[in-house]
Design goal:
Strand content of chain B: over 45%
Radius of gyration of chain A: 14 Å
Oligomer: heterodimer
Strand content of chain A: over 45%
Largest sheet of chain B: 6 strands, mixed
Distance between the termini of chain B: 41 Å
Shape of chain A: globular
Shape of chain B: globular
Structural class of chain A: mainly beta
Chain lengths: ~120, ~120
């Protein structure tokens, strides 16, 4: 019963490098999303998807890219890493059935440091 | 845009006692969802309790209960018989419906709760 799996759990990048955070869920959830959590703050929405082939921007999308080619996977790409992107990143998914939304199921988080 | 405010950055409680965490939110919508999530030092986000706005009855889950005041836009969490394992950061979250705002979630800044032995 894996739930939401994020990789890697830790990553150190240099300014300007690119990387992809992987997220996969095995619960057949239509809704997937990426958040970042900075110290002393709550989670802020980066991008989200309501189904395969559909993505949209959240509150803080700049510098990030996503795609949703399958129901299971929702990778987050950092195009050119900046120190301001140092944060903990969470992938989350939820179901929606008949218009009713379920709670978010979270991955374990990925700590990214940009030097 | 919705906002969620948790006015208590830190709280502490003695083991076995009761504590209440506050949360207020702002929205113009009539239907939505409210959640409390717990984040222990392990960093894993765990659902504590959920409330649908159209339900008048307050949700309860074992030692956890909420006081949902829709008109006041208030959603507090009460933890009874506090246990050491309740030590964590607690986040209040508002979630829009799919029709109104694509199911987006907005989180408060969190309350760090310490349960003392």
């Amino acid at each position: 019963n894996a739930g939401v799996t994020q990789t890697p759990k830790f990553q150190v990048l240099k300014t300007g490098q690119s990387m992809t955070l992987q997220c996969a869920q095995d619960m057949n959830h239509e809704y997937m999303s990426w958040y970042r959590q900075d110290p002393g703050m709550g989670l802020r929405l980066i991008h989200y998807s309501v189904g395969a082939g559909i993505t949209d921007q959240g509150e803080v999308p700049n510098g990030y890219n996503v795609s949703r080619s399958t129901t299971e996977d929702f990778p987050l790409r950092l195009l050119s890493a900046a120190p301001s992107q140092t944060s903990v990143y969470f992938c989350a998914s939820s179901s929606f059935s008949g218009g009713a939304l379920g709670e978010l199921f979270f991955g374990e988080g990925s700590r990214l440091t940009v030097l | 845009a919705q906002t969620v405010t948790q006015s208590q950055p830190e709280m502490s409680v003695q083991e076995a006692e009761t504590v209440t965490l506050s949360c207020t939110y702002d929205t113009s919508e009539s239907n939505y969802y409210l959640f409390w999530y717990k984040q222990p030092p392990s960093r894993q986000m765990i659902l504590v309790i959920r409330q649908e706005a159209y339900k008048q009855q307050n949700a309860t889950e074992n030692r956890f209960s909420v006081n949902f005041q829709k008109a006041a836009k208030s959603f507090s969490l009460k933890i009874s018989d506090s246990q050491l394992g309740d030590t964590a950061m607690y986040f209040c979250a508002f979630r829009a419906t799919l029709n109104t705002n694509a199911g987006k979630s907005t989180f408060g800044d969190g309350t760090t709760l310490t349960v003392k032995p």
